Amino acid sequence: MDKAKKQRLEKRGWKVGGVDEFLALTPDESAYIELKLALSKSIRQRRQHKNLTQMQMARLLKSSQSRVAKIEAGDASVSLDLLVRSLIILGATRREVAHVVAGQAR
Amino acid sequence: MDKAKKQRLEKRGWKVGGVDEFLALTPDESAYIELKLALSKSIRQRRQHKNLTQMQMARLLKSSQSRVAKIEAGDASVSLDLLVRSLIILGATRREVAHVVAGQAR
DNA sequence: GCACCATATATCAAAAATGACATATTGTCA
DNA sequence: TGACAATATGTCATTTTTGATATATGGTGC
Question: In chain A, pLDDT over 70 holds for what percent of residues?
Fold first, then answer.
């Protein structure tokens, strides 16, 4: 992982580096975070494609605009649960969610 | 949803039926729960295939045997986060996780 | 029967995630 | 410029999820 990427992650609240401060994420941690970021990106795309504001999407999700903003910003405080529920609420089928999870998705 | 299935879900702690007691889950809720159950099932398979006890898997996950049991029992108190992290820790790639998410998986 | 091990279930204090809210920033149109 | 809508960021009390622990249940070999 390069330095710029590390800083981008830390900006979003991710703790990058485990026991040893210099060491990066384990492959498992890394896969997990990248999965979340992929979902996050896909959510913004879907929302915009449906011409919804964050406010409108928040109502569908029974959440708040600020949380939707955090979802789309890839904030570390957002759970996989909320990410996946967001996609589903935006109309994604399990198949489509899977496509995003697989990673070659767009 | 038939009655037996409803009871099985409620046993696991799922709140089945929303505003109206007779009404079942919305399609979104249903998709979300079925996704979790699919992951749960896949986790048990993977763990057994690797000949790990729940205890051993708990150590990999930095969790406890009881939580692993709940993961595999499809308990409602288990998050999607933990389910996906479990699969990853058992060696699943994002592609493989996606296959489970897609639903025609095995 | 009784050890032994794996798994299941219950409970709970601590940690993480949540929605709500306030406020700041950004973009756009006149 | 200024008004406005959308989005971003920060904080926080409440809710949910967590690992840990204890204990119960189930299976297997003796």
Answer: 80
